[in-house]
Design goal:
Largest sheet: none
Structural class: mainly alpha
Shape: globular
Helix content: 55-70%
Strand content: under 5%
Order of helices and strands: HHHHHHHHHH
Oligomer: single chain
Number of strands: 0
Number of helices: 10
Radius of gyration: 16 Å
């Protein structure tokens, strides 16, 4: 397992966060943040939901598009409204409920649910990814559970303390590091 320590942090901090992908992500987060702040009860529209999925899935977006087309405003708005309103003193339970609520929509598994949460709440969540999982835990994995996500998030919480960067900046730096190893 990769250790979230100062040595790894120093390697990551040598990398740049000025890539086009990073800028696109910043723009999407800014756009979604503005939309959520303008609403009395925060939620996503179907269009915003689709923008996040397009961003996360990139070249794989069209693969399961038909399955996801049923996620219209009448589905996306109440589900995201419910998800975003969940609060618990037990943070792990809160995260579990949020992920499971989002996965009630067709075509949304833990990775897409984590992407939705990460774009909407960038200070609290990261996007679970099979390439980073393999780098960190030295095992291939193509599907994830809530427990996997909590473990992944915990790793980045620990590593971000060493980098003095946000969770998502740390995640992006590790992704760049992983790319440099390929």
């Amino acid at each position: 397992m990769l250790k979230p320590d100062q040595g790894l942090a120093l390697k990551l901090l040598k990398l740049s966060v000025s890539s086009d992908d990073f800028q696109e992500t910043l723009q999407l987060k800014k756009q979604i943040k503005k939309a959520l702040q303008e609403r009395e009860v925060p939620h996503l529209s179907a269009v915003e939901f689709d923008q996040i999925l397009r961003w996360k899935l990139d070249k794989q977006y069209h693969r399961s598009k038909q399955q996801r087309e049923i996620n219209v405003d009448e589905v996306v708005v109440p589900i995201t409204r419910a998800c975003f309103s969940i609060r618990s003193d037990d943070k792990n339970y809160e995260i579990e409920l949020k992920l499971k609520t989002l996965t009630t929509m067709r075509g949304v598994a833990i990775p897409l649910a984590s992407a939705i949460l990460a774009i909407c709440f960038p200070d609290e969540f990261v996007v679970i990814d099979s390439l980073l999982w393999e780098l960190i835990y030295k095992e291939e994995k193509s599907s994830f559970t809530v427990s996997d996500y909590l473990k992944f998030l915990s790793f980045f919480s620990s590593l971000s303390k060493h980098t003095n960067c946000s969770l998502q900046d740390t995640e992006h730096l590790l992704w760049l590091y992983q790319q440099s190893l390929s």
